[in-house]
Batch of 3 targets.
Target 1
Amino acid sequence: MLEVINVCKTFDPGTVNEKKALTGVNLKIDEGEFVTVIGGNGAGKSTLLNAVAGVWPVDEGTIKIDGIDVTGIPDYKRAAYIGRVFQDPRAGTASALGIDENLALAGRRGHSRRLVWGISAKQRAEYKERLSDLNLGLEDRITTKMGVLSGGQRQAVTLLMATLQKPKLLLLDEHTAALDPKTAATVLETTEKIVNRDHITTLMITHNMHDAIVHGNRLIMMNNGNIILDISGEDKKKLTVKDLLNEFEKASGEEFANDKAILS
Amino acid sequence: MRSISPLTNFCTRGAYMGAIGEYLSSLSLSGLLSRIPAGVSQGLIWALMALGVYITFRILDIADLSVDGTFSTGGAVTVILIIGGMPPALAVLIAFVCGLVAGTVTGLLHTRLGIPAILAGILTQYALYSINLAIMGFKANTAVSADKYSLVVSGRSVNAAIIVSICFVAVIIALLYWFFGTERGMSVRATGCNQQMSKAQGININLNKVIGLALSNGLVALSGSLFAQYSGFADVNSGRGAIVIGLAAVIIGEVIGDAILGKRMNFAFRMIFIAIGAIIYYLIYTLVLWLKMDSNMMKLFTSVIVAICLAVPYLKNARLNSFRRAGKNSQTAVGGKKDA
Ligand SMILES: Nc1ncnc2c1ncn2[C@@H]1O[C@H](COP(=O)(O)OP(=O)(O)O)[C@@H](O)[C@H]1O
Ligand SMILES: [Mg+2]
């Protein structure tokens, strides 16, 4: 479903701030796989997701989604294949628009934006049903402006928007990191539910090693702009946080530089 | 016996009072009342401009300065075409299209060439000054007489002008309400609100910015077209300050609308109140003229009002969230501990 072939990205090349953020990454993800991504701060996790989403062009390499080479396509066109949820709850929705309008915008992702009325009665009923799946009571207030919702509610709606039409690929970048632990757990549970129900191919970055082990069926670890560990199947089920830390030290020769990941 | 100095004092004061009295008696209330209908009809024409400014400033979150140029363009194009024999209604339509083109230029300068929006607008405005002059054969103004042509609106028949401009404003508000509710229009609103989200939802934000800027300038040119016909001439300087006047109307309308409707304010009401804001602005302008103040002071007055209105939300927030407040809180907390 997703093929990342020898992808390189350097930020601010030729300056003192030059940063090789991706150094020839190779990754192949099959349809229906749920991959969790961990790694220290600055390891290149977000950069990898941004490269796949097409936020900027990569320096080298190829990115294919479902066999289609998307390397030369900008983000707003790649969005036809990709659903995204960001770390910042404010990033994923338009706060001045209603919940229903945000969903309607997501409903046209990958289609032309026509000069026809944006929300039909049928769509509104469908949105209500989808919102009720979230168990947040949002179905009773679907014209409420997005901006007045809490961070957790916004992330849940963003998740719904990303999956309203089944994406070929779902990209989650620490989408629960800005939430309090209880809300984070709820949003993660919803994520798991939707991904499993619709069999969505997913890449989920998390700073929490425990979450990375519990969720998904494959785990990759990044360091210094590349993938240093890739575990799936039975091996992943048996993993412990301690194993991961050992593996990290073995593969990188450094200590794991993200206290948050170890402590939580 | 009175000493001399209080007497002279009395005399000057008398002269002063006399001047005020003369001034007051020179103002006739009926004069003011008779000017109100004209003020309303011109306010309605400016409402179209205010709606254009609203699209860029509030919906797209761009301060577009090209409008100062496009307002004059609308007038110049209209007057020259009418003099050339075109039916006035068609000339209005072409003025609107010229506004669309000018807005598109600003949009392309911004999105294709990476020029900051505010500067792109200034460049277009500056270029339009030459273009507007060229349209009018390098004369600063050109007259179009209501006697010779059957103009769409004219200051000669104010009541008819009010009815026609109400129709224009109503139709434009209805069309904008419809457009911003369509799939495309909704995506333009999203673009102005959150670009990252818009891109993630597959929205071409550059295209939408161009659409918004074009639409806005189209409306401003439409306003300029009607304004030129109403006043009976096109002037290359007529658009000066259009952005500020438009903003003033938007702000007046929003303040009044929020006060009256509060949470029930929706998009349609918002646009209606902006039109009302434009009328109120023009009535204030009429009042200023009636008070025999120099109309050139109106620009200073408008700028001060707009600056205050734009600053209020910021200052409100800053007051709740200031270092001084934090410092005070800290001192009272320390003081409290000592007492305990
Ligand atoms: N847009 C950018 N411009 C410059 N440097 C960037 C940019 N995005 C990321 N980087 C740098 O690339 C490295 C990898 O960042 P990132 O992928 O965000 O790490 P993480 O694994 O924590 O998500 C970091 O050193 C970061 O500072
Ligand atoms: Mg990151």
Target 2
Amino acid sequence: MNSPKKLIVSHAPFWHIGSAVPERNYNILIAALPAALVGIGIYGAPALAVLCLSVATAIGWEFLITTIAKRPNTVGDGNAAVIGLIFGLLLPATAPWWLVLTGTFVAVVIAKQSFGGIGATPFNPPVLAYAILSVAWRVYFDYDAQLANVNVDFTPFYPLAAAKAFGSGAVADIPLRDLLLGFEIGGIGSTSALALLVGGIYLVARGYVRWEIPLAFVVGLFATASLFHAANPASYAGPLFHLLTGFSLIGAFFLATDDSASPVNTVPMLIYGVVGGIMTMLIRNIGAYPEGVVFAILLINLMNPLVDKIRPKAIGKVA
Amino acid sequence: MTSQKHRTILYGVTILLLVVAIVAYAAFPVPTPEEPIRLMYHTNAGKVLFDHQTHASAGGFALSCTDCHHLHVGEEIEPVSCAMCHPPRPEGMAVPESCFDCHMPDEIEDPMIMKRSDALHEQCMSCHEHYGKGPTFGPDECAKCHVM
């Protein structure tokens, strides 16, 4: 593929931030670290086990597939590690080893390498893996069922499932402090809004993630949740709750922003993000699943080539 | 392109992570507690999450074990799951050997005893009615326990 004699124009990303791909990936790892540490702090050794296994097997699959397919060994660029870590952060702390192993296989081999590797993935690999596996093995992604044997001293149910099934009253007593700090049933690293914000703002500040996508995602989600809440406050929980629970913030900063699956121009990025936020709330409030982020992101990944057509006309040329 | 040295470090880290994962998986499985914390029932009418710990603990609803575990609680024997006597499935459930320490087989294989879902419905709802709190009998109440 990477013949040295040819000049190759790769797929997106095209934003130049003056640094190489590995640096970007290692910075994403650093940015995800606070969330990972919170998860390990709350769920202990089982969470550590899932995260370590997820990163190690993602790298392992990348190594295997590039070796078998005789492609350049891309393990060193850190992208496999990022896929592994992000996928691990979405799982419940009690995820069995075979689920992690299959998940990273789907993410790295199917969602990434089979589409041509880094820069060519139409869907964010961890998101696609999560979506496929959660449809195949729904109960392993049911945080209430998976974490039933974990003794917690905070609200002992998955807030999004409760909000969907029992209405906003069921989650009215959950302190915002808990949602900020991560005292919440859910994915290992997806629960602490504060940790995700710190990581996300770091990525934006360093230029590894464009601000347009997360901001638009958050605005879309917040506005839609507000409308639902205003229409029927008893059924639909408020916007702040929705912003701080589930995968909202990990979605805004770490999932929706995948380079090759997201647009590169300002207006498309804004549309892409806003639609992601709106879809998330539509799925959460009127769809079949308590959490909508994963499917919303697949959807916006799908529409990415389309919105990316909205771009400035080249000057001095008849189109 | 990444250098060879860089990659060697990465392989080292990967193997280290793998070892940590294997050790953590092997040494710290999430145990099934003696006394349940939360119980998830997957029924053909959706799932039901029963918060055993909150119902039974002083910091929660402060009920005593015997409020629910109506037989066999006391000095000589710990509470057992309702399913031991109230079969969770129509075809029943294997009776554990330990029961025969005290019972003759014909004593405990009672075909008339209600199945577990009826026993739970009956007990959960009548107690809630008694306290005037929590989901009770009635067609509007199903969705307060059952998540479709």
Target 3
Amino acid sequence: MTERGRKALLLAPAGIWLLVMLALPLLVVFVFSFGERGAAGGYVPAFTLEQYANLPARWTAFKNTLILAPLGTIAALVIAYPLAYFLAVRCSPKWRTSLLILVIVPFWTSILIRSYAWIFILGGRGLPALLESIGIDDIRLINTPFAVLVGIVYGYLPLMVFPIFVSLDKLDKRLLEASADLGSTPWRTFRQVTLPLSVPGIATGCMLVFILLMGEFLIPAILGGGKVFFVGNALVDLFLQSRNWAYGSAVAMTLVVVMLVTVSIYMKFISRLGGQREDVSLM
Amino acid sequence: MTKDNGTISKQKFMEELRRYQKGSVTRRHFLGVTGLGMATAVLGTAIPGLRPRPAFAAGDIGDRVILATWPNYHDEMNFEAFTEATGAHVQVNVFGSNEEMLAKLQAGGSGWDVFVPTNYTITTYVGEDLIIPLDTSKLPNYDAGSFEQRFSDAGSVDGQLYAVPKNWGTTGFAVNTSKLDGAPTPTTWKEFWDLTMEGYSGRTMVHDYQLTTIGNALKYFGYSFNSVDEKELADAEKLLLDAKPHLFAISSDYQPPMRNGDAWMTMCWTGDGKQMNVDMPEIAYVLGTEGGELWSDYYAIPKGAPHMDAAYALIDFLLNPEVNAKEVLAHGYPSADARTNALLPKELLEDPILYPAADLLNALEFGAAATLTDPNRAELLARFKSA
Amino acid sequence: MSVPMQTIAELRGVTKTFGNVVAAKDLNLSIGKGEFLSFLGPSGCGKTTALRMLAGFEKPTEGQVLLDGEVVNDLDAHHRPVNMVFQHYALFPHLSVFDNIAYGLRQQRPRVDKQKIATKVEQALETVRLGGFGPRRIWEMSGGQQQRVALARAIVNEPKLLLLDEPMAALDRKLRKEMQFELQNLQRQLGITFVLVTHDQEEALSMSDRICVMEGGSIVQVGSPRELYDMPRSRYVAGFVGTSNFFDATVTDSAADQITVRLASGQKVHGTPEIPIDAGQEVCVSIRPEQITLTRALPTAEIALPVTIQNRIFLGEHTEYLARNEALGDFHVLVPRQAELNEGTFNAGEQAFVSWGEGALLILEK
Ligand SMILES: Nc1ncnc2c1ncn2[C@@H]1O[C@H](COP(=O)(O)OP(=O)(O)O)[C@@H](O)[C@H]1O
Ligand SMILES: [Mg+2]
């Protein structure tokens, strides 16, 4: 067998897998998005742009998603970075493994159960009651964008911590000494060496969290009380409640396009920022 | 629960009801958000093949039967008894909404043997050819005459029986009267919505369900709960959008916030209303005098059920008045079967929440098939939520 | 050194312990301005620790580190006018060659002006013969080039002390030779004090003005390469600086300027020790391989021992023989090419004699 033939054969299963698992569903959604809703729901073949014309009816969902997904990503980054930094640089190796496990453990429980805990914490008998006892009255937290943000940060923290931890952990600590040796203060060393060298981890973490957040529906449903609506929630409604597959497909296609556009802008930005040889990897 | 089925005292009933509440996660909402009808609870305690076969198999119906139903809507002991009697395990899939069930059956390959549709969905299932006519000869416990007709006639379409009654109930609202500052308890949907936008601002919940949320908004104007009239729906939408900033949440998971005081008023189903009222008497259950929803759930068999014999066996078993009475005691929703009611305690049959006064009951409407499938109503609710 | 040097750095009774590991023990050393000093010793003997204390990465557990006459024990690394070339260079992978070299200048406050930085960096690049490589990325540079970048990055700051921790360990042999040469030239040219850490005696011998030999955390001898080679204090130093033949001996007679020892073969030999030695003491005698003469005929020297040739290795300039004496054991003998031509090559199994001239034999502490 030729080298090329052997390669093709080796890649075939992965290729078929990608085709079936990724391309095919997307194609179906693409075709459906030009169809119509059946009388009792579902999909009726047609060629119409009506579904796309209807998109403005979900503008708020897109707006919420496009505001809260980046905001959630940034908030997660702001909290995850010091944590990852501590674990990778400051923490003694003796404790590192245990602390890392502590970061992952919550991930083993379903996000649903964990988010339910926040219902209590942010609900009237949780934090607001505590605030009231120190004289800050009538604070409503649950079912607000803030609650959703808290849930997002909490739920996605490990996904942000790990890539950053990895990039900081593999950072050559002698570079920090070299920087000090050349007269740099610890803070300047962080800004000029540590931070730029952890850019791949930051980029990976942000990308991971951002992409997943664009499709999020669970956290807004649970902590937003149905009042903070993401595109994901709109999709759940369209496919499961109103069974308008055609319109749902159009919304889904739009989400995919919006995602591709934002992610490619983001990649451009990152590669300019990093300027490193190692490409920004996804995992 | 004992096998002998003597009359049960009121105290015993309350105990049973409490047991139900303690373990209660009547969370259609919960399922709605896990969504996709994937929340599946397997009640069989062991893998079927490993369980000892019963000594007396009542004909071989296979080792399992798959039931799609609502959360906390059964007595587990009854399923165990069924397994003991037939050797078939009951595998339970719980769902959040009729739309979800319909979506799953429309997509095909559900694998269900028995499911629990609500009255207004049955004609749609028949129309979509997703449901089979029932052979009453395989349901010896089904006695058409013993059911109150208004809760059983939706089971037949064009004279053909497709579904047999399970339980019925109402949709009203629950209100925490301690927050009314001495004002009288509201009695109408008009008051419900006005209170939402005034004194109870930020404290009211509406269902994440188009049928009831839009239906009860229509009631504000005195329109039919089932209206699909464009102008009337436009009025309802305006009311919903006006009320939205004042809502605590759009969610059918209303018990926890009602109980902890975050929410003061909510659209509410019979069983939930009863449960909250028992624990917190200040939470009243109100049926709006303008009317509202009356509903009835049924047992039916989807087309292509993989364990047909077991499906019939399970429905017949649950129709047994003695079994059914235990079901009612476990979940707290009324039954339309006179034979079952005869076995229930008098206090229960006189409970004003479960069995409302005739004039209130007569003002209620059954949801219509057209209401459920109306694309404009579905889209209206989605717009309201994403507004 | 003949010219008295001005001291630029000093270790005074410096001890460093990590937990219960004593990495450096009571180090006392003056480093002269402009000299090229090497720390030499096997791996783990505390060389890096000594260097890191000079750089400010480690704080002495006891004793004082002085720079320019001031105690700097508590001065952080980034405040010391000292720069280091790290073992694996530790170049910043995200910066260009230019930015790596400019790094130190850019840390200076008040800020150095851009034009000046550019000029200095270009100059440094020229100095290490990398002119025009400024815009390159680090990964585009070969190992030898990276080493020069590391060097440029350090010297551009004109440090009082340039510390080099095994800077050539990662280079292949040929490149290493070349770099040794360049480094030495550079040091002369810049006049910066170099402190080099190495476990390679050849490197230390060829480059340094002075060598500080370390063993187990302690300094065992400091001196010029010549001094260490000719007058090692101990068997350890003699073995580390060049190769030698060692034999056990007992002191039979000890006078002020001459002592007599008896070899295991019974012969008595004389010598002058570097250190006072008493009669009856067990000592060690050392003879460098190149100071041994190998002959077929019995020589007229004071002592000549019969040997059997075991092995022969041709080394170009020299031929190395392994010759065995019944009583004393194996001798390594290095025969220069000219001598070999006179005497002819010896074959394995052949009988011969080893002998040496006066003063060739060193008497050392065991
Ligand atoms: N940071 C440290 N922690 C513990 N032990 C160390 C540390 N640094 C060096 N040592 C120990 O100190 C001794 C000397 O080490 P080092 O100075 O690196 O030797 P060299 O550079 O001569 O190979 C070794 O035994 C080493 O294990
Ligand atoms: Mg070392």
